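Morning. Coffee machine broken again, so started the prediction first thing and wrote up yesterday's gels while waiting. Chain of 164 residues, entered below exactly as on the submission form.
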Amino acid sequence: MTGSIDDPGGIQDLLLFRLSRILSIGGSMVTRICEGQFGITRREWAVLALVGQADAVRWSRLIEQSEIDEPPLSRAISSLVAKGLVSKRRVPSQGVWVSLTDAGRAVFDELFPLTRSINLRLLEGLGADEIHQLSLALHSIHQRAVALAEETDLPKADRRRGKT
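Came back before lunch.
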């Protein structure tokens, strides 16, 4: 069975499968650095990096930017607080704000260049026009994924149920 990305004939042709394989390989390098050098998970790194791009981020904005469901986001932030990398504070009438501690800023400043380098190395085989087109395509696909998720009524995931 053969196909293409726009007419999949098998799992290897599916966009999400192909992206998952790239993330599995490329992401594993980031995970090894995060866990091995800095003692944080890849999810914690994503949260730390989003907070690190600003002086402080409102909780609601962090949910929006990270696209992580609230319970796992809360666990990641609690873990980062316990590790002394972020702090949370409630601001009356503004909600909860999350910011990096000095230790968190040091981790961000050291880890971001490493992850940036991996990302740039993944793009080395592409020309500037291809990179620009890829960026546009990824943005478009992301927007479509958001729209599909909002219009699709699927059952809540429950891995414990299994098939009987």
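Residues 11-126 form a domain with the Arc Repressor Mutant, subunit A fold (CATH 1.10.10.10). Going to sketch it on the whiteboard this afternoon.
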